[in-house]
Every structure is written in structure tokens, then in C-alpha cells.
Specification:
Number of helices: 8
Strand content: 5-15%
Shape: globular
CATH topology: Rossmann fold
Number of strands: 5
Number of domains: 1
CATH architecture: 3-Layer(aba) Sandwich
Helix content: 40-55%
Bound molecules: thymidine-5'-diphosphate
Largest sheet: 5 strands, parallel
Length: 217
């Protein structure tokens, strides 16, 4: 019988949780709260993100988010995939094999939503590219923080930070991204937990804890 840990598409002994959603949906806050709760229970957690979860990834992140001027759609998709390939191989998979819980801000669903539906490439080809990069690894749970794109924009404006290349896109682009995320969640209901990112932070955190707790039970 095949050894589960040797199959690159499985998460081995660990648990792989990803957070997805538009810019300004509160993913980082929820990732931090979930990490705190799990650590309190004595779990070993690796909190990470894409793009930029490794040293190589930090350099790729600088290009994809802050390069001045256009990047051809296929090149952009490949840059995210390159970041992902290195991140999964060198950081995420080793953590899962140790039995750790990985909490990751964005993964392949972001590529499908942003590079696929948001740009000119097709969702399925972008997904296939990501799956190739990550040797088929899918999360055990993906938390989608769903938020109306105009509310998200108001939050980002209030934070007054410098917009990256993707955030600077028009509202219509972010509307397409949001619908793409919701379609992905509808297609894989057993992997996704969709929460209303307009709810209070502690209400969302409690919903997330319930679901993660049932996965751990
Ligand atoms: P993120 O680090 O979440 O930025 P922020 O902290 O500003 O929310 O993500 C950076 C941007 O990269 C975000 O606009 C979404 C985009 N992105 C893609 O377009 N494709 C991808 O595969 C990933 C992982 C992110």
C-alpha cells in the first residue's frame, strides 16, 4: 500500500489551512487569531503566506506586486506559480510531514481568481499550472472571507497604505475576483468554509474555530 506521506498531493500527518478573499477582507487578522487559539492548545503552527513565504518568494513578491509597468498575463501567472513551487517544496510540505498545522494566507485559489477570472487566462489552466507547481497539494480547509468589493475598497482606503499592482485595479476587476472565489467555493463545498467578512472579527473567529476544531477532533 502506498505510504500517504510519500504522496505529494496529500498533507501527510499535518493539517493545511488556507485563507482566501479579496484585498481588505481581513485574512491576516483571522490567520493570527486562529494561530493564537491553536498554540494555546499546544499545537505547533506554521503561519505563512503567498506570495513571499520564503526568501526567494520575497524577491518574487516584490516583482509581482511592485514592478512598474505591465507584466504579461502568462508571465504573472508563472511568477506566482514559481513562488508557490518553492514555498510548498521547501516550507509547507516539510511542516506538514512533521505533523504541524500550516495556516497560509492565500494559495492556488487566489491564482485562479486573480490570474484566471480577473485577467485573460482561463481558470482551469491557471489551476492546472498551480497544481503542477505544488505537485497536486490541496488544502484540508480553505476559509473564504467574502466581502462586497466596494466595502473592501473603503477599508483599504481607510488604511491609507500604498496600493500594490493588484489592489490598484478597477472595482470591476475586484467584482470578478469575488465571484470567482464564490464559484470555487460552490464547486468544492467540502473544502471551503465561506464566512461573511462583514461580520464582527470575533464572530468570524468563532466560526473558524468551530470548523477547525471539528477537523482536529
Ligand atoms: P496579499 O499578500 O494578500 O496582499 P495584501 O496583504 O495587500 O492583502 O496578496 C498580494 C496580492 O497578490 C493580492 O492582491 C492578490 C495577489 N495574488 C494573485 O494575484 N495571485 C496569487 O496567486 C496570489 C497568491 C496573490
Amino acid at each position: 500500500m502506498a505510504n500517504a506521506a510519500a504522496d505529494p498531493s496529500t498533507t501527510g500527518r499535518g493539517l493545511f489551512i488556507t485563507l482566501e478573499g479579496g484585498d481588505g477582507s481581513g485574512k491576516s487578522t483571522q490567520a493570527r487569531l486562529l494561530e493564537g487559539w491553536l498554540v494555546e492548545q499546544g499545537r505547533t503552527v506554521v503561519r505563512t503566506r503567498e506570495p513571499g513565504g520564503t526568501e526567494v518568494g520575497v524577491e518574487i513578491r516584490e516583482i509581482v506586486l511592485h514592478h512598474r509597468g505591465d507584466i504579461a498575463p502568462r508571465a504573472e501567472a508563472l511568477l506566482y506559480a514559481a513562488d508557490r513551487a518553492h514555498h510548498i517544496a521547501t516550507k509547507v510540505r516539510p511542516a506538514l510531514e512533521r505533523g504541524d498545522i500550516v495556516i497560509q494566507d492565500r494559495y492556488l485559489d487566489s491564482s485562479v481568481a486573480y490570474q484566471g477570472a480577473g485577467r485573460v487566462l482561463g481558470g482551469p489552466e491557471v489551476r492546472d499550472l498551480s497544481l503542477w507547481a505544488a505537485e497536486g497539494l490541496l488544502p484540508d480547509l480553505t476559509i473564504l472571507l467574502d466581502l462586497d468589493e466596494t466595502v473592501a475598497r473603503t477599508r483599504l482606503d481607510a488604511a491609507q497604505k500604498r496600493f500594490d499592482r493588484l489592489e490598484a485595479e478597477a472595482g470591476e476587476f475586484h467584482g470578478r475576483v469575488r465571484r470567482a472565489f464564490l464559484d470555487l467555493a460552490a464547486a468544492e463545498p467540502e473544502r471551503f468554509l465561506v464566512v461573511d467578512a462583514g461580520d464582527a472579527v470575533d464572530v468570524i473567529a468563532a466560526t473558524v474555530r468551530d470548523r477547525v476544531g471539528s477537523l482536529l477532533a
